[in-house]
Amino acid sequence: MTALDSWLAEAQTLLAATRGLGLDATMDAAVEVIATALAARRPLLVCGNGGSAADAEHIVGELVGRFLLERPAYKAIALTGPAALLTAWTNDYDYDSIFARQVEAHGEPGGVLLGLSTSGNSRNVVLALEAARARGMVTIGLTGEGGGRMAPLCDHLFAVPSRVTYAVQQVHLCLYHCLCAGIEARLAEAPR
Questions:
Q1: N or C terminus: which one in the chain shows less Cβ crowding within 10 Å?
Q2: pLDDT tens digit string along 32-65?
């Protein structure tokens, strides 16, 4: 087996294990709460660190831009920027509260916070989930195995059965692309 074959086989095994978790109802519920929020012009806030920050921005790009359908922009905000805010806040206060501070600014009752952390233990994502709950927002998490400290803070949790960062991120990509497609399809059905 070549290195590529081995790599793809490993990804296929984890994807199959994730399929075996029976997350269809969780996906349907997550699509519904996000579509409901966006239809009401409530925000979808998305956050994560490192590769998960890139994923947060990817999700927002699909929803503000377009994924599969031509349609109006959705009210989705990545809490991973702008750089001036991130550097000012973390310099003057701390890094742990950077996402929670933005939830304070942009969060609304009926909105949704989507947090990504492969460990489920990223303190700034955990604090953002706590802040979102305090503001009456629905919380969704994409994590690795077990969900970490994020698990009890998420109304809807996708815990990929692995603790290997890159492997979890590969499955997160599949999950959030499915989420984006579902949101677009659901909102395309909604009366305008």
A1: C
A2: 999 999 999 999 999 999 999 999 999 999 999 9
